[in-house]
Amino acid sequence: MSKPANVVLLIDDEPKIRRFLRAGFELNGFVVLEAENAAEALKIATFSPPDLIVLDLNLPDLHGAEVLERIRAWSNVPIIILSVAAGEDDKVRLLQAGADDYVVKPFGMAELLARSEAALRRYFKSATENPVVVAGPLSVDLVTRTVSLNKTLVRLTRKEYRLLHVLAMHVGLVVTHDQLLKEIWSGNQRDNIQYLRILVRKLRQKIETDPNQPRLLITESGVGYRLQNRFDAVPVADRVS
Amino acid sequence: MAIMRPNRIELGRTGATTLREFAPHSFVRRTVVPLLLSLLSIGLVTAALLAVDVNVATMLVPLAYLIPVMLAATRWGIWPAILASVAGMAAADWFFFAPIYSFRVDDPSEAVDLLLFLIVSLVSSNLASRLRKETETLRQREQEMHALYEFSRRLAACFTIADLVAAIQRHLELAFGHPATFFVATADGHFEPSEARFAPPDVQTTAAAMNAGVGPLARTIVDERRREIWLLRAISSDGSVHGVIAINIGIGSQQTIEARTMRIEAVLDETALALQRLDIGKAMESARLHLQAQLLRDAFHGTLSHELCSPLAAIKGSASVLESVPAVREDARTRALVDAISEETAQLDGYIQNLLSATRVTAGGLSPRLEWADPRDIVNGAIKQRGRRLAAHRIETAFADELPLIHVDSGLVEEACGQILENAAKYSPSGSIIAIEVRSEPGHVVVQVCDQGVGITPDEQQKLGHRSFRSARHQTSVPGSGLGFWIATTFVQANGGTLSVQSRGAGQGTTVSISLPASASSTCELTASANE
User: Fold this and answer.
1) Are B314 and A89 inside 8 Å of each other by CB?
2) What's the Cα-to-Cα distance from B333 to each of A31, B107, B185, B339, B340, rounded to whole Å?
3) Do B383 and A19 touch (CB under 8 A)?
4) Given 1.25.40, 2.40.360, 3.30.43, 3.30.450, which CATH number is that of B158-278?
5) Which of A171, A239, B326, B331 places its Cα 20 to 30 Å from the Cα of A72?
C-alpha cells in the first residue's frame, strides 16, 4: 500500500464536528484539510485541490449549495454533502447540482467513509481499470455487458440491464430518479416514475436473494436508488431478522 | 291552494325563473284574501243570526257583528277590519232593522244604534290592529336579537379569516334565505373564500377595488350577459375595509327589482352595522395573530432542528469514530461504554425526530409530496429506520404478490409505519413476534402491523388519537412522549389514507391497519409499457 494518501477537505463551521471528522478520516489514512467558512473553503479548494470534499450546508458566510456550485464550475472533485434533516427535494436538488452523495446528520463515521470511498473510486476510475463492478454476490461486466450472481449468468432484458449498468457505474452512490429515467428511457416516459418502480421490482426478482428484502438494490426514499457494495457498513437494522 | 304558499323571496342563482310568482301572489295574499275573509265572516254571522229567532237576533245584532270585526283587526290588520265594520253595519240594516231588505232606517233610536256600532267597531279595530303590529315588531326584534347573538357567538369562535368568512356567509344566508358571498381580499390579491371566483369577473374586480378602499362603499353591478344584478357593500371600520358582501339578486321588472333591492339593502345595512359593532376588525386582527403564532412555531422548528441536532451529530459521530479505533474495539469495557453512548444518542435522536415531526404537523407545514412508490420499499425503509428499536423482537414480513404502487409521500408514510412499529415493539415483550402484512384491496394497499403485546382497552381506544395521550397502565413502565400514534395518524391522513386499530383487549395484542390509495393500473400493464 504505497499509494499516496487521499486529501480530504472538511468544510463545516462547527469545531466539534470537524474534530471527529478529522479523527475518523485520519484513522483511515486520509490527509485532512479544514475550513470553517465558505471563503476559506474556496481558497483551499483552489490553491491546494483536495481529492474529496465533505461540505456542510450551514455555513456562516455562504450557503453550502452556493459553495457546491462554485466548486463545480471548474472542478469534478467528489463532494459529499452533510445536512441536518434535509427534505427529499433538497437532496435531489443538491445531487442535480453536482453533489456525489449526501449524509444526513446525525450519522456514523462508517456511513460517511463508505460514501467517500465510493465517490473516490468513481472519480479515479480509469479506462484501464477492471471493468467489472462487484457488489456482494453480484458482478456486472460493463464492457461485455454480462451480469452474474454467485458466478451464474443472469439474463436481463435490455431495460433491466440499462438500469443495473447506470447503478453499477455509480456503485455505492445514490442515483436520482431523474437521472435513471433519463438514462433508461432517453426522452420518452421520462416523467413516469411508475415504470421505474416496476422495472426495479423486476430487476430485484432476478438479482436479489429475497426480492422483498433487497440488500443490493437499495431504495433511497424520495431520492433514487443505490447499488450497495459494502455490507459491513450496513446499519444494525439490516442485521435484524 | 297556491295562494296560501308562504311569501318567501326566492332568489335562486337563476333569479329570473322565480320572478313570476313574486308580485301577483304577494298582492293577492296580502290584500285581497284578508278582505274576502272578513266579508265571509260577516256573512257567516249574518247566516247564524238569521237561523235564530228574529227578536233574539235583533237584540244580539250589534254585539254579534263586533266578533268578525275584532277577528279581522287582530288577524289581518286595519283595512279588513274597517271593511268588516261597514259590511256588518250594512248587513244589520238590510236584514234586521225595519224596514227589512232595505237600507232605510225608520226608527231614529235604531239609527243611533247602528252609528254607535260603527264608531265602536272602528275604534276597537284600530286599537286591536295596532296591538297586533306591536306584537309582531317585538317578535321580529326578538328573532333578530337571537340571530345577532348567534352570529356574535360564532364570530368569537373564529380563529382564521376563513372561519370568519364562513360565519359571515352563514349569517347572510340565514338573513336572506339565500347564499351570499363575503369577499375578503388576501395580501396576494386572491379571495377568501375560493368559491368567490365563481362570481362574474366584473364583480370580482369591483370587490377587489372596494377591498382596497377605492371608490364608494356601496355599488350595484349589472351583468348583462348573465342577466344578473349584484349588490355590493363594503364592511369598514376606522377607515379600513375588512371585506365586501356581494349578493346576486337576479333580474326582473323594474318594480320587483326595486322591492327586492330595498329588502336586501336593509339586511345588508344591518349586517354591515352588526359586523362593525362586533368589531370585525379585531376579529381579523386576532386571526392574523394566530398566523403569526404559526410562523413562530416554524421558527422554533428550524431552531430545534439546528440547535439540538448539531450537538447530537457531534456525539454520534465521535462515538462512531471511537468504535472504529482498534484499542477501543478490542477492550470489552471501553467498547461497552462507547456502545452505551451510541445507544443513548440513537434514543435521543428518536425523541428529537418525534418532536420535529410533531411541530411540523402543528406548524401546518405538512404538504405531502406525492409520488408513486413501492409499498415494499416503504415498509422495508421503516423497518431499517427503526432497526435498533426492533432488534429485540422477531420481525416477520409478508408481502402479497403483484402489489400495486401507492401514490404517497414516501417519507411521511415511512415515518408513520416506523412509529407504529416502534409502538408495537415498545408495548410487547422482547422476543415476541411483530407480524407485518402488506396486501392489496380494491383501490388500496393495506399495511397491517400485528403484535403480541399489552393490547388496548376500549377506554384507551377512545383517547388513542389525541396528542400526548399515554395510557395510565404504562406511564411508569414504558418511556415515551405519547406523540407517536398521533404523528402516525396525522401523516397517514395527510396522504389520503386511513389508520385503524383493533385489539381484543388488555394483554391480547394490537393490530394496526394503515390503508393507502393505490394505483389503478395493474403492474402487468405497467411492465408492458416500461419495457417499450
Assistant:
1) no
2) 31, 135, 68, 10, 11
3) no
4) 3.30.450
5) A171
